[in-house]
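Wed. Picked up where I left off yesterday with Sigma 54-dependent transcriptional activator. The coffee machine is broken again, so keeping this brief.
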Amino acid sequence: MATSISDSRLPIEAQLAFIQDNPLMDLLDSFCEGSIIVDQKARIRWLSDKYRLLLELPEDAAKYVGRPVEEAIPNSMMRQVVESGRPILLDLMRIRGTWMVVTRMPIRDDQDQVIGGIGFVFYKQLDYMKPLVEKFGRLRGVPTTAEKQLADMRQAKYSFADFIGQSPVIRELIRRARQAAELDTTVLLLGETGTGKEVLAHAIHHASVRAERPFVGVNMAAIPESLLEAEFFGAAPGAYTGADRKGRIGKIQLADGGTLFLDEVGDLSLSLQTKLLRVLQEQEFEALGSNRIIRVNVRIIAATSRNLKQMVETGEFRSDLYYRLNVLPIEVPPLRDREGDVELLVGNMLRQFCDASALPFRKPNAEAMQLLRTYHWPGNVRELHNTLERAFIFAEGTELTVADFAHLQGAGEKGNRREAVKPLSEAMAEAERNFLKQAMSACNGNRSASAKALGISRATFYEKLQKHELI
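Structure written out below (tokens, as returned):
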């Protein structure tokens, strides 16, 4: 379904202006709470006054015309509509803390080319939708007892309140993660090991519309590759030697209606990457040893500590899967960049240790806290937790001293950090880039001579220059 106009010979701006000035737009705008028109690059071309007031934008909203729609509506899905050409006929969007019913449609010309998109906010009081929701519930059927039990067993363990921190980078992280929770789209969590990506994934699910449905996690690095396909997709009865005679339900099917968390997705083999891509694109899969297509409705949250973009360049990760996962990337900062958060984390962790044991509360003295504050924490929050727990258990008295953290002393304060070991693919790419620069320098910028000096063709040399953005 799409809104269309009749004359593709007009410039796109004129075609969109034709819709804007159409009397039908005035009629539709009178029935809804706000409307917007964007062009084929998701730039705002028109915004109704009612929508401006709803968004609490300044009266001079004309400054947003020509700007990306996300600048006015950060959680807008209009870009997805114009890029895919598919409407989102009924959706919920949170605006200024209130859930609203919205409709989004692509605008096509008479050649069936997408030239923009149009969106309407129809209700800002969800009570209007109650009869429709109740009818849908009767037709679809409420969750079975087994589904409820499954959801209860696999509920999110953490909320945003469990992600401790008040540093500017963490406040920005939580803001973006809350925004992600409001959008029912794929999220990619990036960051070093131990930074709290799994906690954040739980929190996003907990704050989303899928909160009452299962949260199912799969750690790609923890499962042998030979078992991963059955773990992931399930297996038909007798699919392989030793398989359960009743068959096995995979993690994707267990997550139906909820969220599937793919931890360390960068460790997924290329063969399984292809199958995961189908799940993302079509929301369907086949169990191992079965020809029956199973359709699901899952939201994917993926996490990795590896450089997926670099892996795409070296052929270790499928580019189409990377772009499917990288819809809403969120970078989780390392602990060393979280100014002032170490004290908060230490206090919170020590209270947890105290509550879980019969030991008295113990806290670091000033010198010990200074050591904890300046240590570079290559293992991030996970390393801090393990270090504190060990010191808490074996310490004598009610005070933790520098002696309780002796293994940290001289191991790399912030001003004297050891250089982190880079992934091989990243190190090789960096070396290649340096060789290209050295060859260009030695040959005074002559590219033909540089290619000859490196023993490669001129075409290959140009490709590598473009790959490393050296031209």
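Quick read: Residues 138-151, 413-419 have pLDDT under 50 and may be disordered.
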